[in-house]
Amino acid sequence: MGMMTVMNSVRSSASRLASRPARTERGAALVTSLVLLLVLTVVGVTAMMMTRMQERMAGNTRDLNLAFQGAEAALRDGESMIRALPESKADLCSTAGCKYWAPNVALIAAGADAVQLFDSWAGCLTPMDYENFVLPYSKAVIDGITPGTPVIHFSTGTAGLLKQVRAAGGDVIGLDWRVNLDEAWKTVGHDIAVQGNLDPVALFASPKEIKTRAGEILRRAEGRVGHIFNLGHGVLPETPVDHVIALVDAVHELSSR
């Protein structure tokens, strides 16, 4: 079933549910919960699909653009439906937050030294929507992590949201490749560590170019304590392993000077 078909089905179901008179307050709450569950499912599946499409279609720009247009339209529809039920957004977002909190606690109990809150699609939101729909719930997740366990708070496309991301919490703020590391670090504050931020596509370049780009990021970090070198997102599936090794070697070499 296509994503548009799913969204049309969600709209139709939501419309039918909303049009039925609720016999009790409990019944009305159930109707709202069902609609929100549908929205959460669609938004979550869409985000997963967008990630998978990015991985599998990196070499076909036209198909990738078409796929993203459809998936982004579905996300917009999901956001619109959530905004149509503002009185229930807290329940929805709290439920989503709890689903992220529990696995992190389990990881720590199993021996993890640090955890990362990975928010790949936060950049789709306006600052106001991030503050309303994400910030309080990400903060609740981070605040609920076992005390003493470092938390890396990573998001993408959030060059205009870095102050809000910092406000949501974390011991380390992850930066994607769309910002200059020195400018972003200044925005979030030098009193907090940062992680990043080489463009993952740079790993398809020659080892010489990879070293040059890594050096530029280290130059912007200025040797300041608190910089964790990393990519600005995940390693793409087709990335040559030798190029990843070349990057690691280059960072070690340049950092030792």
Describe the structure.
This protein is α/β, with parallel strands linked by helices. Helix content is 60%, strand content 9%. The protein has ten helices and five strands. A five-stranded parallel β-sheet has the order 1-2-3-4-5. Helix 7 (162-168) links the parallel strand 2 (151-155) and strand 3. Helix 4 (89-109) packs parallel to helix 6 (135-143). 26% of the residues are buried. Residues 1-50 have low confidence and may be disordered.
Features of the shown structure:
5-stranded parallel β-sheet; alpha/beta; 60% helix; 10 helices; 9% strand; disordered N terminus; 257 residues; globular
Layout of helices and strands, plus pairs?
Elements: H1 3-19, H2 25-56, H3 61-83, H4 89-109, E1 115-119, H5 127-133, H6 135-143, E2 151-155, H7 162-168, E3 172-174, H8 181-188, E4 193-198, H9 207-221, E5 227-231, H10 241-255
Parallel strand pairs: 1-2, 2-3, 3-4, 4-5
Strand percent estimate: 5-15%
Classify the oligomer: single chain
Whole-number mean pLDDT: 74
Fraction of residues in H or I helices: 55-70%
Distance between the termini: 55 Å
DSSP, total strands: 5
Identify the strand order in the major beta sheet: 1-2-3-4-5
Brief sketch in words of this structure:
By secondary structure, the protein is α/β, with parallel strands linked by helices.
